[in-house]
Design goal:
This protein is of the alpha/beta class and 148 residues long. It is built from five helices and five strands; from the N terminus they run αββααβαββα. Strands 2-1-3-4-5 form a five-stranded mixed beta sheet. Helix 4 (87-96) links the parallel strand 3 and strand 4. The longest helix is centred in the N-terminal third of the chain and has 17 residues, at 7-23. The chain is globular. The N and C termini lie far apart (43 Å).
Length: 148
């Protein structure tokens, strides 16, 4: 696979979004949706800015991608997200019928993988751990800064 279209390439884009979130005072989670090697949505958490607990990066990315495609289904799309989606986001991803989810760091407290059986669409492929070290460092740095 050409490096331009690798999971690491797109996850790096999501990491840039997460860094922008941190600079904006948001929990540093970034998301990118790719369809046929084309970025159709990229965003980060906006829960603080919008005073909206549902304004997670994944939800905003799903909405932007669906609007771009003119369809509520994301069957031929991949979501790249820096942190494992929560249960709310996994539910939205289920309904979007997204083809693939690639995430960086696991969320041992609120991640969807804590729910068994899986709450994702049965046809959704999941890959985890892409750029996990860099993403985990960003999250740790952000929360350490909050506590000081």
């Amino acid at each position: 696979m050409h490096p331009l279209f690798s999971d690491e390439y797109y996850m790096q884009m999501a990491l840039y979004e997460a860094e922008a979130a941190a600079e904006a005072g948001e929990i540093p989670v970034g998301a990118v949706v790719v369809c046929q090697n084309r970025v159709i949505a990229k965003t980060f958490n906006h829960t603080e800015k919008l005073s909206d607990v549902t304004a997670h990066a994944e939800i905003l990315a799903i909405t932007a991608a669906a609007e771009y495609l003119g369809s509520k289904y994301l069957k031929d799309c991949t979501l790249y997200v820096t942190l494992e989606p929560c249960v709310m986001c996994a539910g939205a991803l289920y309904w979007s019928q997204i083809s693939k989810i690639v995430y960086g760091a696991s969320d041992e407290k609120r991640g969807f993988s804590l729910i068994q059986p899986s709450i994702l669409h049965p046809k959704t492929i999941v890959k985890k751990g892409v750029l996990e070290v860099e993403i985990s460092q960003l999250l740790k740095k952000f929360f350490l800064k909050l506590r000081t």
